[in-house]
Specification:
Elements lengths: L1 H15 L23 H6 L3 E7 L14 E8 L10 E7 L8 E6 L6
Antiparallel strand pairs: 1-2, 2-4, 3-4
Length: about 110
Amino acid sequence: MKGLLAILVIALIVGHGCTGQGQQPPPGGNNTGGNATLTQAMCDAANGHWNECGSACRGAPEGTACILMCVQYCECGGIAGFGCPAGYECTDYLPSEDTPDAMGICKKISESGK
């Protein structure tokens, strides 16, 4: 019985991680590229793809320990040609920028070092 209870508790904790409701990203995290001013409306207006429950590990260097929590961001690129709002650029492509269907995320131009 204890084992079943432990499994239920773990399932609730893990399952709750991707609801995207009421959860705040970690400080300096990748929510909208570390910028909380990018909204779904801005993303939609720029023909981007809003991801309600993206990986908090997006853009982190390989081998970085990441939390298992959803973050929101505007996806760009890919075959569909998703775009970014003015003042943002498409970066952090997966699998790589050279792949035709690679998806990136919109980050503020000043945050990406340009």
